[in-house]
Amino acid sequence: SLIVGRPIIDTHDLECVDVRERLAKNLRRLRQHRGWSQEQLAFEARIHRTYISDLERGARNPTITVVDKLA
Q1: Which pLDDT band, with edges at 50, 70 and 90, does 1 fall under?
Q2: 29-56, pLDDT tens digit by residue?
Q3: CA-CA distance, 33 to 50, in Å (whole number)?
Q4: Whose CA is closest to 19, among 7, 11, 30, 8?
Q5: Which 8-state DSSP code applies to residue 37?
Q6: List of residues 6+ apart from 26 with CB closer than 8 A
Q7: Which segments within 1-71 are labelled E, that is strand?
Q8: Helix, strand and coil in the chain, % to nearest 5
Q9: pLDDT of residue 18
Q10: Radius of gyration (Cα) for the chain, nearest Å?
Q11: Residue 5: predicted pLDDT
Q12: 70 near 47, Cβ under 8 Å?
């Protein structure tokens, strides 16, 4: 919808983006701190490597099950 020519911004959407960005940065930082490649993290967590890549770019919304595998 538009109000006075401006789109309505759903603050819930902004919160989701912020959470994805924080997860992405922390996941990459912690993976690199361990000296692991995305492939190694994917193997250890039993998650596909491309999914790890998507998470690190903030392109995915992981389920709590995925977050548990990464913890």
Answers
A1: very low
A2: 999 999 999 999 999 999 999 999 999 9
A3: 20
A4: 11
A5: -
A6: none
A7: 2-3, 6-7
A8: 65, 5, 30
A9: 85
A10: 15
A11: 57
A12: yes
Q: What would the two tokens of residue 48 be?
A: 């596909």
CA distance 39 to 51: 10
- Does this model's pTM top 0.90? My answer is no
Apex CA 31: angle with CA 33 and CA 50, to 5°? 155
- Residue appearing with tokens 């538009």: 2
Distance CA 45, CA 66 (A): 8
Cα–Cα distances in Å, from 39 out to 1, 31, 32, 49, 53?
43, 11, 12, 5, 9
One-letter amino acid identity for 52? I
CB atoms near residue 52 (< 10 Å)? 25
Q: For 4-19, how does the pLDDT look when each residue is reduced to its tens digit (9 = 90+)? A: 555 554 555 666 668 8
Backbone conformation region of residue 32, classed left if phi is above 0, alpha if psi is from -120 to 50, else beta? alpha
